[in-house]
Each structure stands twice: as C-alpha cells, then as structure tokens.
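Q&A log
Question type: sequence-to-structure
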Amino acid sequence: MAAEENKVQTGSNSAETGKPDGDVSGNTEGPAAIVPESEKQAAAIARMKELAGILDEAGKAYYAEDREIMSNYEYDRLYEELEALEKETGTVLAGSPTIRVGYEAVEELPKERHEKPMLSLDKTKDIEVLRSFVGNQKTLISWKLDGLTVVLTYRDGELAKAVTRGNGEVGEVITGNARVFRNLPLRIPYGGELILRGEAVISYPDFEKINESLGEQEVRYKNPRNLCSGSVRQLNNEITARRNVRFFAFSLVKADGLDFRNSHMEQFRFLQQQGFEVVEHLLTTAAELDETIAYFENKIRHYEIPSDGLVALYDDIAYGESLGTTAKFPRNAFAFKWQDELAQTRLLEIEWSPSRTGLINPVAIFEPVELEGTTVSRASVHNISILRALKLGIGDTVTVYKANMIIPQIQENLTQSDNLPLPEHCPACGMPLSIHNALGAETLVCENPDCPAKKIKSFTQFVSRDAMNIDGLSEMTLEKLIGRGFIHRFGDLFRLKEHRDEIMSMERFGKKSCENLEQSIENARETTLPRLLFALGIPNIGVANARGISQAFDDDLERVRHAGEEELKEVPGVGDVMAKAVAGWFENEKNQAVIEDLLTEISLQKGSSADGAAGEKGIGGELKLTGKTFVITGSVSHFANRRELKELIEQQGGKVTGSVSKKTDYLINNDALSQSTKNKTARELGIPILTEEDFLKMLE
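Response status: OK
Response body:
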C-alpha cells in the first residue's frame, strides 16, 4: 500500500510535468502500475486541496495585502488545472477559488454590504470562444481595467457613498477618498438615486513618479494596481489626493425613471452626460470581432491606463438579464485576456539588484527578443522562491512574454539546469546576505544598516539642484550605479569616470549621456559651503539653515566641523534639536571619513554664502513677509520639512497658522489642484494657493 501511495502521489504531481496520472516516471523495472480509479480520485482531490491553498494564498496576497507572490501566468495555469480537476472529478471543494468571489475586506475601514452581489466574469484567451459568446448579439467590447472596483451612490445629485468591491458581497466604505479622485464629479445633473460601478486606477506615468518619490524606508509598489489599492484605502484622503487616482465607469446599476431603450450603450452615454469618464468601448458583432480586438491590441501598447484584457457585454439589457447567472459568473458578459506573445531566448546572467529596503532582487538578463513591438532583454524574477521554481541556470533556454502586453516575464525554463548560485555578499556594500522567509516566499536580504543602497535618498539629495547640482543622476540611475558597486560614499560620485566603459554599456546610457554626466560632475567640483551642508543630508538641515550656519561661521567648514552645540545654538534660527543634530553628525567618525574623502575631490569657495541655493532667498535681508499669514500643507521639496519653511516665513516677519480662514493671506501647497479641505476653503475664500516656487519668487 505504501508503494501504491507513493505512486499515487507521483501521479498527483504529474500535472506539473504534463504527464498523465497513470504515467509514473522513474520506474525502470517494467511498465507503470495502473492506479485504481478510487485512488486516482483521492489523488486528484488531494491535488485540488493543494491548488486551492496555493491560489488562496496568492489571491489574498494580491487583492488584500497589495503584494505579489507569483506571476499572472503561473496563477492562471494553476487555476485552469484546478478547474480541469473539478470537471474531471465532478467535485468542487468548499471555499474553492473557482466558486468564491474575492476576499474579505481589510479591517481599517468601515464595511458595508452591497445591494447586489458583485460577481466575477468568466474568461478566455481564445477569440473563437469569445466569438461563440457574441453569437448573433450586438456586443460592447471595452477595456478590462486593472485597478480597484468601486461602487458609487449619488442622491439628490451629490456623491453620497463609495464602497470597494471587497469580497463581492461586503466592501469597505471609502467615500472620503472617492471625493478626491482626480476626475470624479461630486455633483451631477440627475437628481434621483444613481448607483454605478467603475474602476479606480493610477496611470503608468503617475505610478513611476510616485514610486520615485517614496521615502527611504518605504517599499516600492510592484505595479499600478497595488499602488491604487493602497491609495484608495488610505485613512487620510490627503494621501489619496496626491496619488492622482482616476475613476472609469463601466456599469450602471440603478437610475430609476429613465428609459435607456434597452441598451447598455445608451447607459454609457447617460453616464458621460453626467460627467463621468467611462471605459472606452466599441459596439461590435461576431463578424467584426477580429477588427475590434485588433484595435484594442494595437492601442494597449501605448495605453497609459493599466488593463489586463477586455470585457464583452451584450448591448441588449433585457436579453442579458434573461440569461441569469451561474454561482460565480453573470451570463451576459465575458472577459477576454490577451493571448501572450511568446519568444524563446537564452539566459545570459542574473543581475542581483539591491534596493532601499534591503531586498536583493533577481533580474534575468537574456539575449534581446522582440515582444509586442519592442525589444526586451530583462525581466524581474521577483524573489528566490520564483527563481528556484523556474530552476534557472546561465545559458538556459527560456520563453518570455509580456504580462498584459506590458511587463516582461519569464514563462518557462525549457532547459532547467538549476545550477544558479545565490550571491553571498551584497553587491552594493559587500556585507554578507541572509535569506528571509515571509508568508511562503524566500527573499535575499542585506541587513547592513549602512548599505549605500538603503541610503538612495541621501545620494539623491546630494546631487539635487539645491545641493551639488549634478545633472544626469536620477534616482533610478543612482540605484543602478550603487547596485553595480560604483558608489559607496559621496566622493565616489566624482570618480565615476573610472567606470566609464561599464556605464556606457548600461541600458539607456550611451556615449552622449555619459559625456554630459562627466561635465556636470566636473562643474560640481567647485561649490559653496551652504550647498555642501545641505547636500550632506544632516538631519533637520535644509537649504535655509545651511546658509544661516555658513554665514555665522564665515563660510569656514573647519569651524563648523568643530563647533559645539552651544556655539551652534547662537546661530539665528538654530535651536536645541538642530544644534545637537549638526554637532552629532560631525562628531561621528564615519561621517568624518566621508568628509575627508569628499574634500579630496571638491573645493569650497570662500565668501560665497550669498550664492546659496534657491530656497535661501530672503534670509538676512529686509523682512519681506511682515504682517502676512500663511498656512502650509502637503509635502515640500526645497526644504527639509515644513517646519523649516515655517521658520523661514517667521524669520521674514510672517506668521504661520494651522488652518485656512479669512485672516489667511496665502496657502502654500505644491499640489495646487488638490481637492483637500484646505485647498477648497482657500478657493472659496479667494485666498491665493502658492507652490514653493511661487513662494520663493516672492522673496526675490
């Protein structure tokens, strides 16, 4: 029995190798044993339980925790295997992902039950299956957007409620956040109760900008869908407002007293008339389907809104409703997922890319191939677990594709040499690495707190305009240079010429870019003490305080380096906390070594405090803000924090309060279009809203 059980187990795993259950590989002593039907059934059900657990964990991570532990391709493959086993066995287990809709809503926001359950859509990648669905019906084809589904309710023309999809029956109430969606109408002409559904999304350009702006300790989002999910479910809608969330309507649930002539197309037109952006849609027939699909396939290559396929919906409302639903799917709509274009190539290397969070991420580098109209030569492997599952080795033949026609992924390893060693030391700092296991996914981690990859923000500040002003070193470029071990401390930036050939071979970094960077570095070798003090990233020291300290010590770096707390506190605008931070920074031996190394590459111009950075204007001159009252909101970029901006205003005779009122003269907010309460109040009272740039011009 034990031997038979072992064979059954081998058979149950055979789905992963593509072999039938009766084919027990590895038996060299004769033909494979024939597994009894009852045992085959038991093995199949055991495999179904295993698949359900894997898919459940992946789905929970993706939908509820905004992280990704497997590729879309792998998820679909396992899901289809589970469906096939359920059909083969005639058994569907309780809680199976094929019958359960979504996952439970998280706890941070109030929950509410939907008036009508929100079902998933049946799906296919075969256009002929879709054509069969269309049949003789006029059908709407629209984008299947990849964001977070939201249900909106309007009463008396006002937005009354917004609820996320949640598990399809119960969602999270996010009304306050929906009010700051970038394109959502807060008042509409229709005065009755209106209920509609749509997708909250963040565009690819906004996704990239937001990721680049994240703080040193913050984990970057893997895709716009995860970022949108986190943005929509914020407890503070100011954060949501800064994320540029947009809403696209895709379904009208209720609008009593109106005649839509039995047409979903008419419903879309009505929603557009109310001020909503609706998903792009085309009316098609079975005969026109190829042309319609081709239109969307061509457009997605440059489409800025994330989409993972298309939705087909019968235009005839009554006909569609007469079909009813299955336990999970409505019968009037169908999802079409892109048929991935595959290319075969050879794995050249694995690049281990360090990040600010300490994760060392594997990136596959392969011989360039053409996919979806572009040349692709690299793809993220995400973590060690996925890398091991693919059994990768240098020189292996792999198939690659673009998930949703956009994100390069490895689909399959045809060679499976499985001989890839893991690095033992961090490529950025050289310290030993460790393996962490979190929720079933193994990751490689650098635990050195002084790893330069973790301090990417400090290097970003060092090269910024108000600091050393080195053009051509974006945060992304700095990450690449640090990851290759070219930069360990600030002085290394001035020695990048030593790596010229390697830098020129980097992606998107040719000869001209390299020459421009080298010239910018040369220009930065002569600088001023205010710029240097700001560039060093000393806690609480922004451009304004850097200039004040420089003036107080006659632009003498040695005096600043050896100044004590008491001496520093005598500088106007420098309090106890700031004095302690400056003195402590220069007392640190590692920081002293950084300064000594840096001074071998740069020279400081004496008597140049007046040349300070852009944010320092107005200091020490006439009090230009006397009698003016300001309110500051949102993030700042020219100052270390809002407190420093407040200090500058007060130094110039102004006053800063916490809320906008009739007594306020100016509101400072870099996001002038924000729908925050302070912005709304300022607009209602006719109070000017200034960006930092506007404010600094006032002081010139």
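Response note: The chain is about 35% helix and 20% strand.
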